[in-house]
Design goal:
Helix 4 crosses helix 5. The protein has 124 residues and is an all-alpha fold. It has a single domain, classed as 434 Repressor (Amino-terminal Domain) (Orthogonal Bundle), CATH 1.10.260.
Length: 124
């Protein structure tokens, strides 16, 4: 049996935030294509600090990992909050961030329960 990923895992929180905000996050590829313009993927990747393959994957609409997402946002000079539809003021609002994380964890727990139930049914 595979080890379960803890619900407090940053990866799980990242995935939940991405799922909740997929429509806005999907626009990341368009912003990348516009900024890259006539640059090759290799040139853009070198400038961003990621591989040309990662540039291609993001431009094809694949969800980047947290580190790549951060680098791309920095390169675009756009706050990650824009793509995650999280409102920022002079610094992030801790209460709002905690609420988003709590909601994400609740969704993870719900999904985990559904997956566990399905695994149990399939095991019988």
């Amino acid at each position: 049996m595979k080890a379960a990923v803890p619900a407090s895992s940053p990866l799980i929180c990242w995935l939940c935030l991405c799922i909740q905000n997929m429509s806005k996050l999907h626009e990341l590829k368009n912003y990348m294509k516009l900024k890259r313009d006539s640059q090759t993927m290799r040139e853009a990747g070198n400038e961003i600090g990621i591989s040309a393959t990662s540039v291609l994957r993001v431009e094809q609409g694949h969800l980047p990992d947290v580190e790549t997402f951060g680098k791309v946002c920095k390169w675009l000079k756009i706050s990650p909050a824009f793509f995650l539809e999280y409102e920022e003021s002079n610094g992030a609002k801790p209460e709002a961030a905690q609420m988003q994380i709590r909601l994400a964890l609740e969704k993870v727990n719900e999904l985990s329960s559904i997956i566990q139930t399905a695994e149990n049914v399939l095991a019988d």
